[in-house]
């Protein structure tokens, strides 16, 4: 099984915890987009069966496989027709932002659970195996969701950060952005798959994970 260990981005023995965390992260993220768009008057995602917490409606096979192989992947994008919103730009920003914010919320829930479980001694009588399993799951739930929060806010297509910028800039600039979207996606792929570019872009971004965890923990009134 050593060849499989080398192939995967995550340790094989922690694979189940990664799967559960990612299924939760992707499902809640895409549901947040679909539900908010539906509540704002756009039935596109609803008609496509995306206003659901069923993971099968949101997971993309290739995107899910890639995140296990290279640490980067995606779920099925939610179809949104901003023209159906009463206030297209404002509601478009909200619909784009709730996806990453849902991941930040899941991370905050994970941190709260970690504080409650380990600071209060809830598992003190549990076996070492159970304690390690809970710790590993919460660690992935927190770190992966913060990673998705940060990653999706990058202002490059097809990420949510790009959609937010589209709705913030004047219409004439948005038209120019739409005409050059393929170059933005090309740059996005270069950043992801070329290690030197990744080291000076994504790596410093993801290095903020610990600072975010500490900030949320302090918000709860606890210190690591």
Task: Write up this protein.
By secondary structure, this protein is mainly alpha-helical. Helices cover 69% and strands 0% of the residues. It has twelve helices and no strands. Helix 5 (88-119) packs antiparallel against helix 6 (128-152) and helix 5 (88-119) packs antiparallel against helix 7 (160-168).
What's the helix and strand layout?
Elements: H1 2-7, H2 15-39, H3 44-47, H4 61-70, H5 88-119, H6 128-152, H7 160-168, H8 171-179, H9 181-193, H10 195-200, H11 202-206, H12 209-219
Helix pairs in contact: 2-5, 2-6, 5-6, 5-7
Helicity level: 55-70%
Order of SSEs, N→C?
HHHHHHHHHHHH
Low-confidence stretches: none
The biggest beta sheet reads:
none
- The fraction of residues in strands falls at under 5%
* Structure classification: mainly alpha
Total E-strand runs: 0
Mean pLDDT: 87
Provide a count of the helices.
Answer: 12
Radius of gyration: 19 Å
Task: Tell me, briefly, the overall form.
Answer: globular
End-to-end Cα distance: 36 Å
What is the structure about, briefly put?
The protein is mainly α and 224 residues long. It has helices at 2-7, 15-39, 44-47, 61-70, 88-119, 128-152, 160-168, 171-179, 181-193, 195-200, 202-206, 209-219.
Which descriptors apply to this entry?
mainly alpha, 224 residues, 0% strand
